[in-house]
Amino acid sequence: MAMTSGNQQNLTTARGAALYIGAILGPGLLLLPGLAAAQAGPASILAWLALLGLSGLFAAVFAALGRKIPSAGGVMGYVTAGLGPRAGRATGWIFLAGVVGGAPIVCLIGASYVTELTGGGQLTRAGVAAALLLIVIGLAAAGLRASACAQLVLVCLLTVVVVVAVAGSATAARAANWTPFAPHGWLSVGSAAATLMFSFAGWEAVAPLTTRFADPARQLPRAVAIALAATTALYLGLAVATIGVLGPRAATDVPLAGLLSHAIGVAGPDVAAVAAIVLTLGATNAYLNGAAAMVGQLARPVPGRAAAPLHRLLAAIGVAGLLLIAAYGLRIVSTAALVAVPSTLFLTVYLGAMTAAVRVLRGPVRLAAVPAALAVAVMLGFCGWTLALPAAIALAVGGWGRGRVREPLPGRSAARCLPSPAELVAHRAR
Question: What is the pLDDT of residue 9?
């Protein structure tokens, strides 16, 4: 989820790395290790390793896109520059749908840790999640927005909790918990990888920050390397601990609570619940603000008509979120099915971005975009019926860029990459 800084001063390497880490990590880390273990067993570690390698390619490509197209307005602008305005607009709406679909999942994550502590079934969990969503919507309607500093504090909290859980539970790890290694077959690794994509979306959110470094050529590679190393250590450490310590009990919606029980005893679920609530409120606030910003980019101004107020957007997000939470509470959909929806949408966005990168970038980073695009396409093959969602959105918006694709002319924003006939004539004359 995108996080923006409250000022425009130059970024230091350390702060830039912190913003990158903050964009990648989130409450999904509290759920997905158990969900991946349920899908693929111990073999889910292969999905984690593959996505961590792919994350490095994403980091390099989005950093290059941010340098080349600094005024693109994010991933929507990158796809516009490479594949045309219709593709860019479709990407924007697909990304927005992924953000909106992710908000109720974050609330359900927090609710799972609360009901793990207090007791209650799936319907109770849905009720707690609905209450959390309404609280955050109310705070957003009142004008409260979490700052970038507050988001980074939340990330630090998550990091500390994960480190304590992994390090403290290490003595309870058992080699026998790694067998059988692939109880659901090797193809289940692909399904787990597609699900885990929900935790790896974020590199696109901070690509525009590349222009904020005083010396991008020196600082940017260091910031990205620090962020990649930190996220790799946290993700891999938690995934290994979930399988090695919890064993058959790894297939749970609250893996961190189980690890903390081993690490600090009976207070473990309490700590996990408090951390989950705080992270849920902060992350969902960022989701709602991100959705509002994306709608502002996508909306076409109509002369004489005022823009839709924020309250109308929040009402729409609330209705969609409550419907999804109610479907979960009534056992119409599972947690895995809910996570599959934004995961597929984010995969589609990344496929568009990587394909666009192949067209607009040059040199080694362009070569990095090719395997990244192929890997995303393979993961999309495991997404099943949810592929219909991005396809429907793209068709509704108007297709993925019919006609000739043009790169932006020099000096022209990539977000407005279709030049007028007069500009074309002037450009060709030069």
Answer: 59
CA geometry: angle 75, 63, 357, nearest 5 deg? 55
User: pTM for the full model?
Assistant: 0.82
Cβ contacts of residue 250 below 8 Å, gap of 6+? Answer: 33, 34, 37, 38, 177, 242, 243
291 backbone dihedrals φ, ψ, rounded to 5°: -65, -40
From the number of C-beta atoms within 10 Å of its C-beta (0-12, 13-18, 19+), residue 4 rates as middle
Q: By three-state DSSP, how is residue 213 classified?
A: strand
From the candidate CATH numbers 3.30.565.10, 3.40.50.300, 3.40.50.2000, 1.20.1740.10, the one assigned to the domain spanning 13-429: 1.20.1740.10
**pLDDT over 90 percentage in the chain:** 45
Distance set, CA 345 to CA 91, 142, 340, 386, 395 (Å): 9, 30, 9, 8, 14
| Domain locations along the chain | 13-429
Which residue from 141, 136, 140 is spatially nearest to 107, judged by alpha carbons? 136
User: CA 73, CA 230: separation in Å to the nearest integer?
Assistant: 27
